[in-house]
Amino acid sequence: MEHEKFMRRAILLAQKAAGRTSPNPMVGAVLVKGGRIIAEGYHRKAGGPHAEIVALGRAGSRARGATLYVTLEPCCHTNKRTPPCVPRIIQSGVRTVVIGTRDPNPRVRGKGIQAIRKAGIKTVEGILEKWARGLNQFYNKYIVSKQPYVILKSALTLDGKIAPGGGQSSVITGKAARQAGHWMRDRVDAILVGVETVRVDNPRLTTRLPSGRGKDPIRIILDSRLRIPLHSRVLNQSSNAFTVIATTKKAPRARIRSVVKKGVMVLVLPEEKGGVSIKALVRELGRRGIMSLMIEGGGAVNASALSAGIVDRLVWFIAPRIMGGRDAVPVIGGMETARQRKTLSVENLRISRIGDDLMLEGDF
Asked: Which terminus of the chain, N or C, has less C-beta within 10 A?
């Protein structure tokens, strides 16, 4: 019970850096001596000191003989911006290291624990492992596959519609659900929409949270022919995050130059079924260090992502409304592969209330 108590505190510390550590994991650390916390810390951002180093630095000589609780296996490799944690842990004189979960990084994966044990320090593994591992769903996929963890997020009516027909825009869900969507933006590296969403809704694609606390994600727009209006808000705003347009060789060179003058990055990618290959885009994002991606597109983009098999998690905000109409836009615009004709299974389904709406989550 004592191990769980202090590991729970380490997990809460790690969560403070949600959306800020990419491409590193979130990690929390707590030093305990005589049943009391003597120091603690968490990894605040990539390039900054790791959680263990922060906690040990605050404890100083008091760390000798203490127990170190850490949510993730301490690192032992040097191919990164900061020194490895294992030597510092060994030098500190801690008596025991309690670890939530092993690091899936092939450069670590058990080697950190092995080195700590070899130095004569006792280790305990798997304390609140499910929660410790769940902290870093984005990192766990990225560090192994070098591709971002992908969330498919939509707001829809009970009859599965996301907008009226005729290119009209519509607000589907209530304020609480919309605010939850902004919290999700705050935690991911990038968000993606199709050019039709930009043309119809003219969104800013920024994070808007109370007191301006939100972090803007990188904005990615699928636009195979560069049809985006140059006056679009997404191209004309100040933000700490940049905008990327993924296009194909069909895009006119003059148009590319016009967009680049707006300070936008243009990626020319392979074509698939008349549009940008979303698989190629995801691979490219992984090469550029994007660890998490949230898709907020229309029915066609949603269908493309599911058909490509790139989606890891589904998050749907369902409003207690019925839109009707033959021309209304469905949440999934059409999937044609044999795999989709057999239907896709969503696992670990969770449903919760958020304001007047429902939030449905599941995994692929």
From this structure: N
Catalytic residue, from 40, 52, 73, 296: name it.
Answer: 52
Structure token pair of residue 212: 């301006």
**Conformational region of residue 18, where left means phi above 0, alpha means psi within -120 to 50, and beta covers everything else:** beta
Ramachandran angles phi, psi of 153, nearest 5°: -115, 130
Residue 36 neighbours by CB distance under 10 Å: 8
Q: H/E/C letters for each residue in the chain?
A: CHHHHHHHHHHHHHHCCCCCCCCCCCCEEEEEECCEEEEEEECCCCCCCCHHHHHHHHHHHHHCCCEEEEEECCCCCCCCCCCCHHHHHHHHCCCEEEEEECCCCCCCCCHHHHHHHHCCCEEEECCCHHHHHHCCHHHHHHHHHCCCEEEEEEEECCCCEEECCCCCCCCCCCHHHHHHHHHHHHHCCEEEEEHHHHHHHCCCCCCCCHHHCCCCCEEEEECCCCCCCCCCHHHCCCCCCCEEEEECCCCCHHHHHHHHCCCCEEEECCEECCEECHHHHHHHHHHCCCCEEEECCCHHHHHHHHHHCCCCEEEEEECCCCCCCCCCEECCCCCCCHHHHCCCCCEEEEEEEECCEEEEEEEC
pLDDT digits (tens, 9 = 90+) for 213-250: 789 999 999 999 999 999 999 999 888 899 999 999 99
pLDDT (0 to 100) of residue 57: 96
* 52 catalytic per annotation: yes
Which tokens hold the place of 253? 């060179």
